[in-house]
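Sequence decides. Consider this:

===
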Amino acid sequence: MLLPIGDQPNPRGPAPVTILLIMANVAVFMMVTIPLSAVPPDPRDPRLLAYVQAIAPYLPQGMSLQSFVQQISAYDLVVFQYGYRAAEPSAVSLFTAMFLHANLMHLLGNMLFLWIYGDNVEHRLGQFRFLFWYLATGVVATLAHAAFASGSPVPMVGASGAISGVLGFYLIWFPRNRVRFLVLIPFFFHVILVPAWIALGFYLLIDNLLPFLAVPDGTGVAYGAHIGGFIAGMAVAFLKGRGRRTGRL
């Protein structure tokens, strides 16, 4: 197993927007996801019936409707309302979906990637433009997902589309940087350095494009959003120009 743990070189000084985005995602998880995941929904909540009717046709084979209803939490209804649903698109959910996560591993994986790659891109763009393009590529990523999941009532949540946009910027602007990976093999731990263009190329092609082409839907992973966000970030970075510094800060 390879786990990314950092990159080099890193810019001098803090990356406040990257830190604030991580804090915002963690705060939503701590204050909304965790407490509401342990609370059953209010039977009088009108969202409950709408949620059951929308999700029931997509239940895993062998799961009964009764079993599904018993597992619903109050957080599921929050996700249903504020996650992005291609069947009922909402301008609000285009943004709120970026700050909701399905579980702890979903959150940690996304925040790790934002922490590793966000600071370089933020320093290159500047704080306000970084925030703008983070949100903008996140919106593009969600719309890319919707294009391939047209009519789906299943809500999509997570920051990975926006973070994929950051990765696209990074690939164009810092291809010669090196990413530190922790090699996790039983009884063996080692850190290796991989050129950023290889690490991010692997993320785009192997982790997302190939699975997307093999199984375009039904996996529970929004590969289309990852690909769309990544390409959007690459396109903006390319149009803005690579400038004199193409590899390092």
